[in-house]
Amino acid sequence: MKLKKITLWLSPIFLFSNLVVAKDNCDKETFWSTWYNQGGFKGFGIAPSQEKIVKAQYELAEHYYKGNGVTKDYSKALDLFQRAAEGGLTQAHFRLGLINHYGKGKSKDLKEAFNHYQMAAKQNDPEAQFNLGLMYRYGLGTQRNMTQAFSWFEKSANDQLSLNHKQCEIKKPGVLEAQFNLAQMYHYGMGVNKNTTLAAVWYDKAAEQGMKEAQFNLAKLILAGDGIEYDFERAMDNYEASANQGLVEAQFNLAQMYHYGPSRFQNHVKAHHWYSLAADQGFAEAKFNLGLMAQYGRGTSRNYVSAKKYYEEVMHENIPEVYVNLGFIYHYGLGTYVDDQLANDFFIKAAKHRIPQAEYHLGIIYRDGRGVAKNLAKADQWFQRARQQGVWEADEVLKTLAFKEPDDVYAYQVAD
Question: φ, ψ for residue 171 (rounded to 5)?
């Protein structure tokens, strides 16, 4: 009985060993091993098998596709990949999908690309599965279908066994981009029920591989404690890793944390650094914040001229606070001349968005008649609106307005 147990225990090892040898022999097949048998050439008069022909077609197609050893030629690659696919080599379908998807060597044909990706995906080709998921997600070459997109992203995201063009079994790792898309599907409930816990798991997998978008999204979930434990330092590490790779949103969010975050973390010099990098990429909110830092001397020397320049660059980016700050600059003549009319115009634009300090300053403008006719009734209206939003200065001004007589008080006296 003991011998039987030992035999049964050893048999899987022998089976695994045989598989490894078979795999190794498959991978090591060369021209010499194919055409020489025990030292004798067997090529003359022996036609190669169809299997060997399609493998050769595929390999030559790869050379033309990548330009390895030959001049890159997508038309020749297309012809050879098609022959290999028609000969039954399913691995050729992925390349044919790419050629049709991006119009290499022929006109773009998304439907044809979809068909080729589908044939390759069914043979456990993770890259084809990922591209098929993208086509379902965005409706490329087929109808948009989030459930199918999720299904193919899930397959592509995981490691799986597949066959290469030599029909050798190989283990292919999950596709990084598929892991990120799968995380998004869980994050926003696309094609599957929303599950931020699983979203965080897949963002984390992609983030560990250095994907900046995954690092950014993971940081946001960690800061919110949504689906993953709150950890400020870990969130900042992910923001910084993403920002260092140039993701502008990560640069801006990291700058915001250094600017307005917990007091122990605040560092205005670092905030200015990251705002500057984001601004260099044209990020409007970063330019606005650089204006703030220049206006109030945070992280840099106070410079009203620079502040004005930054504000003017984003004046048409629908940031209401830009208007009120330009209003301040012209109202008080900060780094420029006083211009009551321009100040009035900017405060009115800001007041349309219920910016309380704009409302308060419009009260001052109408009280003092700066660039407009003096009008205490309008001044009172603007001060009232500012007070409703917590501007205590407006409350003090309203007390003094109540004791003032209107300029035309004598017009209402009864004549003797």
Answer: -95, 120
HSE, CB side, 13 Å, CA atoms: give it for residue 377: 3
φ, ψ (nearest 5 deg) of residue 308:
-60, -40
Cβ atoms of residues 366 and 376 within 8 Å? yes
Length of the chain: 416
Query: Residue 171: enclosing H or E segment and its boundaries?
Result: strand 169-172
- Predicted confidence (pLDDT) per residue in 269-323, tens digit: 999 999 999 999 999 999 999 999 999 999 999 999 999 999 999 999 999 999 9
CA quadruple 264, 265, 270, 276: dihedral sign: negative
pLDDT of residue 398: 66
More confident of the two residues 38 and 141: 141
SS3 call for 143: coil
381-404 residue pLDDT tens = 999 999 888 887 776 776 666 544
Q: Does residue 240 come out as left (phi exceeding 0), alpha (psi in the -120 to 50 range) or beta? A: alpha
CB atoms inside a 10 Å sphere around CB 189: 13
Q: Report d(CA 199, CA 101) in Å as an integer.
A: 29
Question: Reduced to 3 states, what is the DSSP secondary structure of residue 163?
Answer: strand
How far is Cα 407 from Cα 132, in angstroms, rounded to an integer? 76
SS3 content of the chain, % helix, strand, coil (to 5): 65, 5, 30
Which pair of tokens denotes residue 339? Answer: 């211009």
Longest dimension (CA), the chain: 137
The partner residues of 172 in beta bridges, in order of sequence, read 160
Q: Are 275 and 289 in contact (CB under 8 A)?
A: yes
Q: What is the dihedral of CA 285, 286, 291, 292, to 10 degrees?
A: 80
pLDDT at 41 over 80: no
**What's the pLDDT at 7?**
31
CA 131/CA 148 separation, integer angstroms:
12
On whether the CB atoms of residues 286 and 264 are closer than 8 A, the answer is no
The C-alpha atoms of residue 130 and residue 101 are separated, in whole angstroms, by 13
Q: Lowest-pLDDT range, 37-51, 74-88, 331-345?
A: 37-51
Distance CA 45, CA 410 (A): 124
